[in-house]
Amino acid sequence: MKSLGLIFFFLTCVMSAQQNTAFDSLKLKGVEDLLVDDYGNIYLYRNKDFSFTKYDSLGKQKGKLMLTLPFKIQSVQNPLSIPSFSENAQELKFYDQNLNEIQTVNFRQKFGFIKMVYAEDLQQIWLLDESTKRLIQYNFRDERIINSYPLNVDFENINDLLVFNSQVYLLTADELLICNFKGDKILNIPVNQGRRLRRENGNIHVIGRNTVHLFEDRMLRIIFEAVNSQIVDKNSAAYFGIGDHKLYLYPLNN
């Protein structure tokens, strides 16, 4: 009976921590990706029409993109410069806080076929060139290649890329692969439905379909799980999940 009491207490805490937001089901219909910035703005992507819409925390629309080709938003951690990569167009575009285009970087003339891009800052980006099997460090302001490293991995199923502390993090739906700049595989860890990598200072997070993992001590540790959610994300203050056509917020301090 004591164990049943502990289970009931745990479920009560989880349910009380979950907060329904102001978003209605129409705004969430057909959403296939969710991102949240540290100001509480919500970004929703629909692959059906290649649309990307920004809302404030009250559900008021602040901006919208309608593109003709599929694209991937890398991150909204800097909402003043949001990087978006289209593998089909072989272009990286940056958007401002109102989702107005502020810069385009075209890779067709200078590179083979770019599979994935990681925008490290406002000058440097990292490119996975599938045609040459190389990781390229590129200053797009000066249009200058800084470094190029061999990377003998399967590029086809990579969902996300992150470079940090001289290590390359490659995420697929099934694993997190970590390599050094010599192309050596340092570590690979199984994951379940890996979608996105997120760095917060020195911490690396793996965002899955309904889980958030922290990479720590060469392991992945679940720090958030919402089993009834179809999509989850986090910012520095809370976790977010879409489930049952509703958007829920889970404060970190709970």
List descriptors:
disordered N terminus; mainly beta; 24 strands; 254 residues; 50% strand; 2 helices; four-stranded antiparallel β-sheet
Description:
The chain has helices spanning 2-17, 25-28; strands spanning 19-20, 33-36, 42-46, 51-55, 61-66, 72-73, 82-86, 91-95, 101-106, 114-119, 124-129, 134-139, 144-150, 160-164, 167-171, 175-180, 185-190, 196-200, 203-207, 211-216, 219-225, 231-234, 238-243, 246-251. It contains 2 helices and 24 strands. The protein is globular, with a radius of gyration of 19 Å. Residues 1-16 have low confidence and may be disordered. By secondary structure, it is mainly β. The strands form 6 sheets. Strands 1-24-23-22 form a 4-stranded antiparallel beta sheet.
Give the topology:
Blueprint: H1 2-17, E1 19-20, H2 25-28, E2 33-36, E3 42-46, E4 51-55, E5 61-66, E6 72-73, E7 82-86, E8 91-95, E9 101-106, E10 114-119, E11 124-129, E12 134-139, E13 144-150, E14 160-164, E15 167-171, E16 175-180, E17 185-190, E18 196-200, E19 203-207, E20 211-216, E21 219-225, E22 231-234, E23 238-243, E24 246-251
Antiparallel strand pairs: 1-24, 2-3, 3-4, 4-5, 6-7, 7-8, 8-9, 10-11, 11-12, 12-13, 14-15, 15-16, 16-17, 18-19, 19-20, 20-21, 22-23, 23-24
